């Protein structure tokens, strides 16, 4: 096969323009380092948007990929396979759930969860119990249903009439939620920490109140743990540290460490309302993805690894606090585990992208969560030496942004 020469400009020629990627093209990664096509190295604090929780090129995952790749990649949903059954067993043993459904992404996992919640409510209570309550600034995916349920209207505008029966309430406002949840509510969907919405952790009392209101009105509580799940917050799933158990939980991102896989977890009683043929997927739960996810779950559920998440979390917060003492950049540093947000103060309003671009120029891959929040979601096993080196580079980037800001004032 003849090699085709490509570069960043090729994106603008051949790709549908729904993304605006960075000016450099990542080519390979190992651990928490990434190299671009020009050979420059970057410290990775983004983790592919909270995905590569075990870093790039993890040797145990590469071994599984090779071994399963030699056996069976795909078989179709007319059959089951041993890797997906082992994965389901691991997840149900670790969690409240009795049953698992596997898809290819977080959006598909949420789509399944929302469809199941409506099916359950209609089966048990009739056709009027269809209302779904979500929260402003939430993000649940890009399918038409999930983008309508998500609380960021900019993602749903311009596509015509949206599904009906969806309400959006202020996040962490329990009185308004209690006022809204009623006999027509079939489900409440919530992120324990809003990721795309600014890295905002839920108040424990807020989630506890949602649980009680759902119980009172026979509504299902759905936790979207696509970003917070699989060790990201310091427990395998975030619900475990809140002491609030959902009826349905969705998971993806880190579950495959970069191999596309999503999961919906629920109880026997609720799962029974998805009969044969009611919902489905072609690729979901394929043996290649399931075998990789099984190894990810095995490794990340290790208590020692989860302890390390909290150690790294404290190290990142300490670096951010030190940088803030020097530059006075942040109004708040927040988050749980290795999902951390640093909100810019009014003096640097809407400058998060400037920091991200300066960080890239200094050899750091970062994330933002809106125009005012720097987001950190690195590997859960990031070497401390890489963490420290990364923050030395970030400090240089911030120095440049602050200097530029001083000049423009």
TrEMBL record:
<dbReference type="InterPro" id="IPR049704">
    <property type="entry name" value="Aminotrans_3_PPA_site"/>
</dbReference>
<dbReference type="InterPro" id="IPR005814">
    <property type="entry name" value="Aminotrans_3"/>
</dbReference>
<dbReference type="GO" id="GO:0042802">
    <property type="term" value="F:identical protein binding"/>
</dbReference>
<feature type="binding site">
    <location>
        <position position="139"/>
    </location>
    <ligand>
        <name>pyridoxal 5'-phosphate</name>
    </ligand>
</feature>
<keyword id="KW-0663">Pyridoxal phosphate</keyword>
<dbReference type="InterPro" id="IPR017652">
    <property type="entry name" value="Ac/SucOrn_transaminase_bac"/>
</dbReference>
<comment type="pathway">
    <text>Amino-acid biosynthesis; L-arginine biosynthesis; N(2)-acetyl-L-ornithine from L-glutamate: step 4/4.</text>
</comment>
<feature type="binding site">
    <location>
        <begin position="224"/>
        <end position="227"/>
    </location>
    <ligand>
        <name>pyridoxal 5'-phosphate</name>
    </ligand>
</feature>
<dbReference type="InterPro" id="IPR004636">
    <property type="entry name" value="AcOrn/SuccOrn_fam"/>
</dbReference>
<keyword id="KW-0028">Amino-acid biosynthesis</keyword>
<comment type="similarity">
    <text>Belongs to the class-III pyridoxal-phosphate-dependent aminotransferase family. ArgD subfamily.</text>
</comment>
<dbReference type="InterPro" id="IPR015421">
    <property type="entry name" value="PyrdxlP-dep_Trfase_major"/>
</dbReference>
<keyword id="KW-0808">Transferase</keyword>
<feature type="binding site">
    <location>
        <position position="282"/>
    </location>
    <ligand>
        <name>pyridoxal 5'-phosphate</name>
    </ligand>
</feature>
<dbReference type="InterPro" id="IPR015422">
    <property type="entry name" value="PyrdxlP-dep_Trfase_small"/>
</dbReference>
<dbReference type="InterPro" id="IPR050103">
    <property type="entry name" value="Class-III_PLP-dep_AT"/>
</dbReference>
<protein>
    <recommendedName>
        <fullName>Acetylornithine aminotransferase</fullName>
        <ecNumber>2.6.1.11</ecNumber>
    </recommendedName>
</protein>
<dbReference type="GO" id="GO:0045303">
    <property type="term" value="F:diaminobutyrate-2-oxoglutarate transaminase activity"/>
</dbReference>
<dbReference type="GO" id="GO:0005737">
    <property type="term" value="C:cytoplasm"/>
</dbReference>
<keyword id="KW-0963">Cytoplasm</keyword>
<keyword id="KW-0055">Arginine biosynthesis</keyword>
<dbReference type="GO" id="GO:0030170">
    <property type="term" value="F:pyridoxal phosphate binding"/>
</dbReference>
<dbReference type="InterPro" id="IPR015424">
    <property type="entry name" value="PyrdxlP-dep_Trfase"/>
</dbReference>
<comment type="pathway">
    <text>Amine and polyamine biosynthesis; ectoine biosynthesis; L-ectoine from L-aspartate 4-semialdehyde: step 1/3.</text>
</comment>
<dbReference type="GO" id="GO:0003992">
    <property type="term" value="F:N2-acetyl-L-ornithine:2-oxoglutarate 5-aminotransferase activity"/>
</dbReference>
<feature type="binding site">
    <location>
        <begin position="106"/>
        <end position="107"/>
    </location>
    <ligand>
        <name>pyridoxal 5'-phosphate</name>
    </ligand>
</feature>
<feature type="binding site">
    <location>
        <position position="142"/>
    </location>
    <ligand>
        <name>N(2)-acetyl-L-ornithine</name>
    </ligand>
</feature>
<feature type="modified residue" description="N6-(pyridoxal phosphate)lysine">
    <location>
        <position position="253"/>
    </location>
</feature>
<dbReference type="GO" id="GO:0006526">
    <property type="term" value="P:L-arginine biosynthetic process"/>
</dbReference>
<comment type="subunit">
    <text>Homodimer.</text>
</comment>
<dbReference type="Pfam" id="PF00202">
    <property type="entry name" value="Aminotran_3"/>
</dbReference>
<keyword id="KW-0032">Aminotransferase</keyword>
<feature type="binding site">
    <location>
        <position position="281"/>
    </location>
    <ligand>
        <name>N(2)-acetyl-L-ornithine</name>
    </ligand>
</feature>
């Amino acid at each position: 096969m003849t090699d085709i020469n490509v570069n960043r400009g090729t994106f603008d020629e051949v790709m549908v323009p729904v993304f605006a990627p960075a000016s450099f093209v990542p080519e390979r990664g190992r651990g928490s380092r990434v190299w671009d096509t020009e050979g420059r190295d970057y410290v990775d604090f983004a983790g592919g948007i909270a995905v590569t929780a075990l870093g790039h090129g993890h040797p145990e995952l590469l071994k599984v990929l090779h071994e399963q790749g030699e056996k069976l990649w795909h078989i179709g949903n007319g059959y089951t396979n041993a890797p997906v059954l082992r994965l389901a067993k691991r997840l149900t043993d670790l969690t409240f759930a009795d049953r698992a459904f596997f898809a290819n992404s977080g959006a598909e996992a949420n789509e399944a969860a929302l469809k199941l919640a409506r099916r359950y409510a209609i089966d048990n209570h009739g056709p009027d119990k269809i209302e779904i309550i979500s929260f402003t600034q939430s993000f649940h995916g890009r399918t038409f249903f999930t983008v309508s349920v998500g609380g960021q209207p900019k993602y749903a505008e311009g596509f015509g009439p949206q599904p009906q029966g969806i309400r959006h309430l202020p996040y962490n406002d329990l009185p308004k939620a209690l006022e809204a949840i009623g006999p027509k509510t079939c489900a409440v969907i919530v992120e324990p920490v809003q990721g795309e919405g600014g890295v905002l952790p839920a108040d424990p009392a807020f989630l506890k109140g949602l649980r009680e209101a759902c119980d009172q009105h026979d509504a299902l509580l759905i936790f979207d743990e696509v970003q917070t799940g699989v060790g990201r917050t310091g427990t395998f799933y975030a619900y475990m540290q809140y002491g609030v158990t959902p009826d349905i939980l969705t998971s993806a991102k880190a579950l495959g460490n970069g191999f596309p896989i999503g999961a919906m977890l629920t109880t026997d009683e609720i799962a029974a309302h998805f009969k044969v043929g009611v919902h489905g997927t072609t690729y979901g739960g394929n043996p290649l993805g399931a075998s990789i996810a099984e190894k990810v779950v095995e490794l990340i559920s290790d208590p020692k690894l989860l302890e390390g998440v909290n150690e790294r979390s404290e190290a990142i917060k300490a670096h951010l606090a030190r940088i803030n003492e020097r530059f006075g950049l942040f109004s708040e540093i927040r988050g749980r585990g290795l999902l951390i947000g640093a909100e810019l103060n009014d003096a640097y309003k809407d400058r998060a992208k400037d920091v991200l671009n300066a960080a890239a120029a200094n050899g750091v891959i970062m994330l933002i969560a809106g125009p005012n929040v720097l987001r950190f979601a690195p590997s859960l096993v990031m070497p401390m030496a890489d963490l420290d080196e990364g923050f030395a580079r970030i400090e240089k980037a911030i120095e440049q942004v602050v200097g530029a800001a001083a000049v423009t004032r």
